[in-house]
Amino acid sequence: MISLDINGKVHEVDAERETPLLWVLRDSLGMTGTKFGCGAALCGACTVHLDGRPVRSCSTPVAVAVGKKIATIEGVGSTPVGAKVQAAWAELDVPQCGYCQSGQIMSAAALLAGKADPSDADIDQAMAGNICRCGTYPRIRAAIHMAAGRKGA
């Protein structure tokens, strides 16, 4: 059995240590907010936080997450920064199809947790690798600025 601290709650899972964290979250624990996109850590749909840092859960063995605090889209809204990001996403109607948005929100929340007032260049760097097939990038950037407190950006 593997013990994981996810969104502030300890979960015991029966999984092989090399199983991708994504599949433990989705299949073993029913946390389906984290999405499977490409399976190669290239699209960002599977982004979660390990000790506050964004990681691609499709390529992160569950053994790497042991002893770390894992945050998923299901729990990010319980943090002040996560709540601001989710509120900005809703206010600006960021999602179109929505598939990539949990990964986008997780990356944005990690950015704002580390840099309260990011520049456009900071946003570009933090969000690189989060692909949105619908092209909602301008709304994503505006929502990040809004969550940072710069409504007019």
What does this structure look like?
- The chain is α+β, with helices and mostly antiparallel strands and 153 residues long.
- It is built from 7 helices and 5 strands, in the order ββαββαβααααα.
- Strands 2-1-5-3-4 form a 5-stranded mixed β-sheet, with helices on both faces.
- The longest helix is centred in the last third of the chain and has 14 residues.
SSE layout:
Blueprint: E1 2-6, E2 9-13, H1 21-28, E3 47-50, E4 53-56, H2 62-65, E5 69-71, H3 73-76, H4 80-91, H5 101-114, H6 120-127, H7 137-147
Parallel strand pairs: 1-5
Antiparallel strand pairs: 1-2, 3-4, 3-5
Helix pairs in contact: 4-5, 4-7, 5-6
Quick take:
This protein is α+β, with helices and mostly antiparallel strands and 153 residues long. The chain is built from 7 helices and 5 strands, in the order E-E-H-E-E-H-E-H-H-H-H-H. It has a 5-stranded mixed beta sheet, sandwiched between helices.
Which sheet architecture does the biggest sheet show?
Answer: 5 strands, mixed
| Number of DSSP-assigned strands | 5
Low-confidence stretches: none
Give the % helix.
Answer: 25-40%
How many individual helices?
A: 7
| Mean pLDDT value | 96
C-alpha termini separation: 48 Å
